[in-house]
Write the structure tokens for this entry.
Amino acid sequence: MATNRTKVPRPLARQLFVEAGHRCAIPTCRAAPLEIAHIVPWHRVQRHDFHNMVVLCPNCHTRFDRGDIDRQAMFRYKELLRLSDPNRVAPEDPSPRAGLIRAYRLFQSEITGWHKSISDLILAVGYSSHGFPTGNLQGCRRAASVARVATDKLGELGDEGVGEAADYVFDWYRNWADDVFDLKLSVFSGSGRDDYEDWENERFMAFVVLHEEVCVALDLDPTELDFFEAERDDQELPKVSLGTRGLWETDE
Ligand SMILES: [Zn+2]
């Protein structure tokens, strides 16, 4: 399996050892001697990339290879090394992977905020015969612009596939907000129930596609990154689950 594997260049090895203070990268272990491990395995990446490598003691290395420690956890340990470095200057070279994951989480949180503000607007209209309450409308517009920024950031840090998938989610919400502003609320009435479900399915699939694109960009399996489940705490609208990570679970 490791046939064409090239030797880790000495400067890179040194950088990895220094990063971990010449101790196993798992904070509760810190044992020695040390081995260099690829977080996404060598046979998949075929290259030595600092951000994808970490030093481990043989015991932790074996546990990692066996799956006792999963890949997402290992990236987190790697990130902790960087954060705990006392000589750390401003993160001039932040791990692009960590940046993408953060941008994905931020996107999810801003979209959730926007979702909530659109729901609030619908509820406020329902209780008022005087059109949209100004405060809700402004809140909704503000949430939309913040979500736009988060969408652009995610597209910037991801690849083209991530950018397109994020735009698609954003557009879904923009269409929903547009419909609300135009008072085309039929989809929320009992008679429009089928349409509503199709629409919800479209949203669900948009999130699924985005999740898969982000995972491709990170070279992770979809189950290795937490999937997004939008929270809906209002009682007026039907509750629609965005599904679970069980979607991608296979029994290979
Ligand atoms: Zn260890």
